[in-house]
Amino acid sequence: MRFSCYQDDLNDALQFVMRAVAVKPQTPVLAGVYIKSEGSVLEVQGNNYAVGIIVRIPVSTEDDGEIVVNGKKLQEFVRNMPGRTINVFEEENTLVMESGGASVRLSTMDVQEFPKVKTPEAEMSFKVQSIALHDLLRKTVFAAAGNEGTRPIFTGCCFEVRDELISIVATNTHRLALAKGILSATYNEVSFVVPAVTLRDIMNRINLNDRDTFATINCSTRFVTFTFDNAIVTARLIEGLFPPYDRVIPTSSMTRVIVETQKFKEAIEFVALMAKETEYNTVKLVFNNEAVEVSSDSPEIGDAVKIIDAHIEGDDLEIAFNAAYIVDVLKVIDTEKVELTFNDPFSPAAIFEPGNDNYIYIATPVRT
Amino acid sequence: MRFSCYQDDLNDALQFVMRAVAVKPQTPVLAGVYIKSEGSVLEVQGNNYAVGIIVRIPVSTEDDGEIVVNGKKLQEFVRNMPGRTINVFEEENTLVMESGGASVRLSTMDVQEFPKVKTPEAEMSFKVQSIALHDLLRKTVFAAAGNEGTRPIFTGCCFEVRDELISIVATNTHRLALAKGILSATYNEVSFVVPAVTLRDIMNRINLNDRDTFATINCSTRFVTFTFDNAIVTARLIEGLFPPYDRVIPTSSMTRVIVETQKFKEAIEFVALMAKETEYNTVKLVFNNEAVEVSSDSPEIGDAVKIIDAHIEGDDLEIAFNAAYIVDVLKVIDTEKVELTFNDPFSPAAIFEPGNDNYIYIATPVRT
User: Fold this and answer.
1) What is the mean pLDDT of residues B257-280?
2) Confidence of residue A205 (pLDDT cuts 50, 70, 90)
């Protein structure tokens, strides 16, 4: 193996591939990254069995070859290489990298032991514009549960494809986000649940400047594969049935509020400083008289209040939420104003962009 | 109490004062910050008995008064206040702050219970230019020990004043930094040891743009007080005798090296990526043939090497150090080139700015 490449390209590839390398690997080879140079393409792979990532970058290869080395050390050195290009070759079970007067030698591991990323045969396959996928993910992934003792199904996002419609849903049972998009062709019905942590990695990888690329999504019974121009991500699906969520979406409302997104977010963030160490991080919202009073209090410490203008239709209302559940969605609302609908202090509220039927967020109030 | 002030001023005062407020206070009032408004001056105090800080800022007072409130919450709200000015008043055991449409109420604590900062009568007092003090501290404080099981005396910096000379020394027994300066008057001999953590806070507080201010340093048997134009810091001294350090400073050398400071620092930081998870974080330096080879290796992982130009006089040498002990001092060396002198691989090395007799850093090598 002997090739040279740009430090930027290899650094970028390793940064993504390392998302599939176990932090605490069960066997040494799982701390490794697989590298294959062949002609003008270098393939970099990481695999922790739950997720596998392949990235391809342009290189100038003198001798084809494949190798496995410690991923963390490789990434650290490549990131800090003093030169703009890196010359890489293999020599006596060692990967040698030379750049800008520095030389790094990393012991290689047995290539045969490395679990190369497999892309299972697809039972169903569809295409989605990369930036459209990014938008769907940005508006939903945050609403999934973390790993704190919830059922595994809630740590994933449910993809549903039917005809030319795709929808992605995430919920931690206290809040839910649902985003819909239109595909450029008609597909058979399919639904599957992908770990949110992997979707976040995919979202962060999508280049928002690149409006012309598509992702091909292949799914089989147990795996999903996202194929981009220069990267492939394959992830084990979360097993189980995603709960029916249609009935938690309110169909009518008693109070309808329109408020400036940014001002509303800042007001909640400010008053929530009072509550942030308390159990429910609760903020109270009082809607009446064309204003919303945002407040929070903490026993023995004090309270904070901010009043902002609002357009209100229907009943006056006093309701309380976990501040994070409202702030999280206001961060992904792209419109200057945001619309909220309520029924009563005990029923879920709906939050959305005015006039946009393709996104809805539901938050359950806190009882005070 | 009723006053108004700039958000920036109060935020700045609280940021510094909070350095003297216990993170885990033994009694609730020690989580408090004391505030006194009187005429055009607001005094803000924090005190954890080991360190007390007073900051004074300009305000416009309507009613004089004094109050104690939770420091952390006060700081968080003041930092995030939406307006440029803040109106503050007391109302029924509550401090009320209003700014930019937001209103915050914080419960007050008993002013009588708060341990107001005392400035013990000075047995000896001297003056030093603030930016000169900053420079002395920047070059020494980092060399003190952390709190990890060393003798308390090594967690401090030793101040020594004699005639018109001030020197500050810090050591963790493996490395030592000594910086000297000239005072503008002649003083009686005195020496005392101040906690490094407090000196770091003082250093960060000094405004480097202000070349005309002086710090007055008062010391008594058990306390030292630093008085600046708008702030006073009083700290309990570390008891015990600072060990004699003169004899660890080499008086001769077999190898003398001059190398570019920045390149040397970058080379060590780069190769040390290999060793950074190992116990001693060791880098090896080989000086010969007008070059220094900087290298590091990690068993089973690999090795890294960078060679940089050097001017070398005397014997060739191979020596190893904890990488951090060399990088730390290279960060505070202000000259383009740095000078190092050595005797043998087992004896301490000296590092300094060429031609500057007022600063020396000593590092003990690692035996490999």
Assistant:
1) 93
2) very high
| B97: pLDDT strictly greater than 90 | yes
Judging contacts by C-beta atoms under 8 Å, the chain B residues touching residue A267 are: 102
State pLDDT tens for residues B186-217: 999 999 999 999 999 999 999 888 888 999 99
| String of DSSP letters for B328-357 | HHHTT--SSEEEEEES-TTS-EEEE-TT-T
Q: Same domain for B22 and B39?
A: yes
Total structural domains within chain A: 3
CATH number at residue A301: 3.10.150.10
pLDDT of B69 reads 97
**Does a structural domain hold residue B209?**
yes
Residue B151 lies in a domain: yes
A103/A131 same-domain check: no
Q: How confident is the model at residue B277 (pLDDT cuts 50, 70, 90)?
A: confident
Please give the pLDDT value at position A198. 97
Identify the three-state secondary structure at position B108.
strand
* B150 CB burial (10 A radius; 0-12, 13-18, 19+): middle
Smallest Cβ–Cβ distance between A304 and the set B102, B274, B303 belongs to B102
The answer to whether residues A20 and A91 belong to one domain is yes
Establish if B118 belongs to a structural domain: no
The number of CA neighbours under 13 Å toward the Cβ of B217 is: 22
Judged by a CB distance cut-off of 8 A, whether residue A302 touches chain B is: yes
Are residues A262 and A174 both part of a single domain?
no
- In whole angstroms, give the CA distance from residue A321 to residue A342: 12
Q: Which residues of A touch B105 (CB under 8 A)?
A: 302-304
Triad A348, A353, A357: Cα angle to 5°: 85
* Residues of chain B contacting residue A273, judged by C-beta atoms under 8 Å apart: 73, 76-77, 80
User: In Å, how far is B276's CA from the nearest CA of chain A?
Assistant: 10
Are residues A218 and A205 located together in one domain of the fold? yes
pLDDT at A235 over 80: yes
pLDDT single digits (tens) A34-70: 999 999 999 999 999 999 999 999 999 999 999 999 9
Rounded to whole angstroms, how far apart are CA atoms A302 and A152? 39
How does pLDDT run across A129-150, given as a tens digit for each residue? 999 999 999 999 999 999 777 8
User: Are B223 and B303 in the same domain?
Assistant: no
A297-302: long-range contacts, CB 8 A cutoff, minimum separation 24? A298/A274, A298/B73, A300/B107, A301/A274, A301/B70, A301/B73, A301/B106, A301/B107, A302/A274, A302/B70, A302/B73, A302/B94, A302/B95, A302/B104, A302/B105, A302/B106, A302/B107
> CA–CA separation, A239 vs A221, rounded Å?
10
The domain boundary, picked from B113, B132, B166, lies at B113
Contact (Cβ atoms closer than 8 angstroms) between residue B177 and residue B159: no
Domain interval for residue A355: 249-363
Q: Is residue A357 a part of any domain in this protein?
A: yes
Chain B residues closer than 8 Å to A110 by CB: none
Measured CA to CA, the distance from residue A7 to residue B47 in angstroms comes to: 51
Q: Are residues B271 and B161 in the same domain?
A: no
Final residue of a domain: which of A113, A132, A162?
A113
In tens, the pLDDT along B344-358 reads 999 999 999 999 999
The pLDDT tens digits of the residues spanning B119-161 come to 888 889 999 999 999 999 999 999 999 977 789 999 999 999 9
Q: What does the pLDDT average to over A95-119? A: 96
Residue at B334: amino acid letter:
D
Q: Answer yes or no: do A155 and A203 share one domain.
A: yes
| Minimal Cβ distance to A76: which of B70, B82, B273 | B273
B106 touches chain A (CB under 8 A): yes
The per-residue pLDDT for A263 is: 97
Shortest CA distance to A41 belongs to which of A79, A86, A81, A9? A9
* Complex-level ipTM: 0.90
- What's the CA gap between A308 and A259, in Å, rounded? 8
